[in-house]
Amino acid sequence: MDIFEKDLSGAMVSPDEPGYDKLISTIFDTMSTAAEMNAKGWLTPEEVHEYLHRITGREIDKSTTLLPPFYVDYGKNIRIGKGCWIQQGCTFFDRGGITIGDGVFIAPKVNLITINHDPNPDNRSATYGRPIVIEDKVWIGIGATVLPGVRIGYGSIVGANSVVTHDVPPMSVVGGNPAKFIKKIEAGSKK
Are 82 and 64 in contact (CB under 8 A)? Predict the structure, then answer.
């Protein structure tokens, strides 16, 4: 297993192991591409999609919109569905894997963070990842942070400035720090 596979698997990855310099170099290359996109000023949707292709290594459906600036570390472990809307100033640290379903709305300044450090202070530079999965038709409010290993269920809403530390059931509203269940969403509800 190379360092990239090990990183994505959730195993602890240390700066002392072979290949770590290649991992960090790839991260800096991706960050450079994102910085180039962010510095361009106004871009057409087609130009943004070209940058996203360079960042993720895959085509993003034309029905999905991302508004720069966009901040990312690795980039290659991001999967974005159709009909998504991702606002300005979002940060995706995807080394653990980020999967975004169809019809997802992500407000400005949302952070999706899949990486954590070893709690042992003598090994704190080592990291491990856990995937984030955002199911179809989720809405994540402005300034929210989703932490490693979280699954947000179909149709759910994450309130503004929330910190999501645990899975969110489908059709639920959560909010706060840490995010807690607020209410169920009834199908066809206008509130």
Answer: yes
Nearest C-alpha neighbor of 146 from the set 184, 182, 175? 175
* Distance of alpha carbon 119 from alpha carbon 43, whole angstroms: 41
- In angstroms, how far is CA 104 from the centroid of its own chain? 12
| Sheet-wide strand order for 78-80 | 78-80, 98-100, 132-134, 151-152
H runs (alpha helix) in 97-152 = none
Catalytic residues: 117
Structure tokens at 137: 């038709």
Q: What are phi and psi of 21, to 5 degrees?
A: -65, -35
Model confidence, pTM: 0.95
pLDDT tens sequence across 88-147: 999 999 999 999 999 999 999 999 999 999 999 999 999 999 999 999 999 999 999 999
Cβ atoms within 10 A of the Cβ of 154, count?
A: 17
Instruction: Give Cβ neighbours of residue 84 (< 8 Å, ≥ 6 apart).
Output: 63, 64, 65, 100, 102, 103, 104, 105, 106
| Residue of 176, 138, 171 whose CA lies nearest to 159 | 176
For the chain, give percent helix, strand, coil, nearest 5: 20, 25, 50
Tell me the three state secondary structure of residue 5.
helix
